[in-house]
Amino acid sequence: MKDLAWNEDFINKVVQGDCIKVMQQMPGNCVDMILTDPPYMISSQTRISRNSASKYKGKDIDLNFGEWDAQWKPEEDYLNWCKEWLKECVRILKPYRHLIFLFDRIKITSIWEYLETLNMKGRSPLSWIKSNPTPRGRKVDFMKAVETAFWFTKEAVKQDYFNWQLGQAKDYVIDSVPHNPRYHPTQKAEKPLKQWIEYLSKPQEIVFDPFAGSGTTLVVAKKLNRKFIGIEIDEYYGEIARKRLAEISERMF
Fold first, then answer.
1. H or E element: which one contains 34?
2. Closest to 197 (Cα-Cα) out of 225, 177, 159, 174
């Protein structure tokens, strides 16, 4: 990819490309908060039928989210890739600032230990509780209603970088999975992102998302009067993100 100019080609932009290669062009200690939703490697070829003969009627449930979530085999390759992009995230994150990423709770142990070797302090995990989780198509499981966001702070924790003046806030947010409109198969709700950005960054600071998808994190950041940087490898979703950003004005919440 061509060399990009810091500020001009990054600030308030959605950059198309591989996030590791793009981050390598960014200077160290340059972003104020990282909030992202990387691939979980949870896709499968399973398709659960919910036809008229099924007890739980409705649309079929497809658990193949796309090639972007199922391209690593074995799991060790996936975890090594995660360590690569996380290492770059830590490098570009300013001291005392925050990294939040949604992630599979089953796979977090080695990633948590790795981040600690990079002088990142693990904090209490945060949760998005879905008020409308996907119904189970089989009678063997509970509905998956909780997504976990893992929160780390670079170096020592300083009170100045948590906006306590906003008042006490729970470590979970209840919000529905967005459907109208639905831009991305794993699109996140705005309400939890809003709380995390409000408490862990300040106006005009840079919120960075290396897996921007359809741009929900960037949209929320813009509404909250933050600067933003997004990276998205898929041209289709990157263009959706740009259109969504162009349609909003700051401070819409």
1. strand 31-36
2. 225
> How many CA atoms does the CB half-sphere of 90 hold within 13 Å?
22
Could you tell me the residue ranges of all domains in the chain?
13-246
Name the amino acid, one letter, at 100: I
Q: Tell me: pLDDT of 169 over 90.
A: yes
DSSP assignment of 181-248: S--STTPPPHHHHHHHHHHH--TTPEEEESS-TTSHHHHHHHHTT-EEEEEES-HHHHHHHHHHHHT-
Other residues' Cβ atoms within 10 Å of the Cβ of residue 108: 17
CA dihedral 189, 96, 111, 26 (to 10 degrees): 80
Q: State the DSSP code for 222.
A: H
- Nearest alpha carbon to residue 10 among 223, 207, 215: 207
Angle (deg, nearest 10), helices 190-200 and 216-223: 50
CA distance 145 to 97: 29
DSSP 133-174: PPPPSSTTS----EEEEEEEEESS--GGGS-GGG----SEEE
Using an 8 Å Cβ cutoff, are 96 and 155 in contact?
Answer: yes
Q: Has domain 13-246 been given CATH number 3.40.50.150?
A: yes
Q: Which residue has the tokens 């879905």?
A: 130
Residue reference for tokens 């306590």 = 164
Dihedral angle, C-alpha 110, 112, 113, 117, nearest 10 °:
130
Q: pLDDT (tens digit, 9 = 90+) per residue, 220-244?
A: 999 999 999 999 999 999 999 999 9
pLDDT value of residue 11: 97
- Could you tell me if residue 17 is left (phi over 0), alpha (psi between -120 and 50 degrees) or otherwise beta? left
Instruction: Compute the distance between CA of residue 155 and CA of residue 113 in angstroms, rounded to an integer.
Output: 15
